[in-house]
Amino acid sequence: MKLTSKISIILVVLVLMSGCLIGILCVENVSDAFDDYLFDTYEVMLDEWARTFVAYYSYHGSWNGVEYFGRVVGLEQSGVVLSDLNGRILYHFDRDYVGRHVPQEIFSRGYLLRVDHNVIGILYPAALFSDTFTVMQEEFSKAMMGAIAKGVLIISLFAILIGIGLSVSIATPLKDLTQATKRMAKGDFSESLPIYGSDEIGDLSRSFNSMANELEKSTELRQQMVADISHELRTPLTVLSSKLEFTLEQNTPLEMEEVAVLYDEVIRLRGLVGELQDLSKLEAGHAMLDKTLISFPAYFSDFQVLLEAEAESREIDLRVDLASDAVYCYADPKRLKQIILNLVNNAFRYTAEGGAITIRTWQDAYGFYFSVQDTGIGIAPDELERIFERFYRTDQSRHRENGGSGLGLAITKALVDAHGGWIKAESQLQAGSIFTVWLPHWTDTKAENNEVN
Ligand code: ADP
User: Which domain holds residue 276?
Assistant: First the structure.
């Protein structure tokens, strides 16, 4: 069943139910009130005749002869009926009623006659015994029910109209949403949902659009990544397969140097796969950090010698300025080493002979700072903002033989993020670059639990 019909039916059923309820309550309460009103109009008359009957009873000491008395004083016109305490009729202008019992529904509604606080009889308006009263009552009830029925009918019509309006306003965005979901399932993110107002439906459309945007971005990223990975794998695989194919065709054993070249390609492949694995773990938040308080100078001295040897072999001037012996940082030692080596290796890679690399550390109340500055090829301003993307390599570095895969800085940034810190790069083309990392002294609860976001 369509939403429009469902909502209209529910509204009409609700209107009918409340109409019936109002009808029943009105008939019960208003009919009683109407009876009371009618009875009150007779009360003045009953009051007058009560005095006459009480005088009669006081004089005679009983109701004997009251019927005759009634006819003599002309009670026919006054329209009153007298009964004893048991409801037996003592006087009625219609003689047939005398001696019968007052009907049950009227019995409690009589006017009590008292002598010295003792009830001696009950007076009723004669109209209560005739059809007039009932007819008036029925007419009143009929008129009231008619009015209620008319009201219910009009409200039902309104309910149907409101139901249609309401369901159209709900169903249209839902229909759009369904269509958009189907389009998205087919990979089409081109059209966004129209926003209907600022209510919950508007919020839903807005959230859906932002979800679609995110999905589109991540789909593009995934596609881009697959393309990048295939591209990166192709070169070493091509070298390996063509060399092996040639060897098989020629049926000649490989020279040791050739094996070494092939082995280098295998190592490169393994490194690439390892880096990819590392990055995806970090980005998915599955990498665990084992953070401790590190005294930086002592920690750095372990691999400083290796860096100095590398600098010497490349004829690069390596300067280390560790500020003081009391520089501490709160990090996972293995991961911190990865961050430092990625940055320093990049500096070596993109700095020519005779250049200089300066490593600095310092700290303030909030955290630990580490920077690597070089006098290398530098990075163009428009490329600077992209260097932390996966597989991104600047034009300059692509032309160099010793360029890496373009994953190093993406991994470095993911590691720094996992520590709750930040990394920034400043550079000038042909003048050099400086990469600065900040790690907080204390991290939030998630990081404290060694979980990477
Ligand atoms: P790669 O493995 O190619 O070095 P990275 O992710 O480490 O990949 O770096 C991304 C790109 O950023 C590099 O290809 C290079 O173009 C640029 N880059 C990184 N560090 C430097 C640097 N110190 N000087 C100049 N360019 C750099």
Answer: 200-284
Residue 59 Cα to ligand 1 midpoint, Å, equals 128
Is residue 262 within 8 Å of residue 243, measured between CB atoms?
Answer: yes
How many domains are contained in the chain? Answer: 3
Please report, for the domain that includes residue 221, its CATH number.
1.10.287.130
Q: Does 195 fall in a domain?
A: no
Question: Ligand 1: which of 349, 372, 397, 428 to mutate, judged by most atoms within 8 Å of the beta carbon?
Answer: 397
Query: In whole angstroms, what separates CA 20 from the centre of its chain?
Result: 38
170 and 221 fall within a common domain: no
Same domain assignment for residues 118 and 225: no
Q: For residues 36 and 98, state if they share a domain.
A: yes
- Select from 394, 416, 426 the residue to mutate for testing ligand 1; criterion: most ligand atoms less than 8 Å from CB: 394
Q: Is the pTM of this model over 0.90?
A: no
Q: Please tell me the distance from the alpha carbon of residue 271 to that of residue 277, in angstroms, as a whole number.
A: 10
Is residue 193 in some structural domain?
no
Bridge partners of 329, per DSSP, are 294
User: Cα 434 to chain center, whole Å?
Assistant: 44
Query: For 396-411, b where at least 16 C-beta lie within 10 A, e where not — what string?
Result: bbeeeeeebbbbbbbb
pLDDT in tens, the chain (453 residues): 777 777 778 877 887 888 788 878 877 777 677 777 777 777 888 888 899 899 999 999 999 988 888 888 777 666 889 999 999 999 988 888 889 999 888 888 888 999 888 999 999 888 778 777 677 777 877 888 888 888 888 887 887 888 788 888 888 888 888 888 898 888 888 888 888 777 888 888 889 889 988 888 888 878 888 888 888 888 888 888 998 898 889 888 888 888 898 898 898 889 888 888 888 888 877 778 899 999 999 999 988 999 999 999 999 999 999 988 788 999 999 999 999 999 999 999 999 999 999 999 999 888 999 999 999 999 999 999 899 998 888 876 665 556 677 889 999 999 999 999 999 999 999 999 999 999 998 755 444 444 433
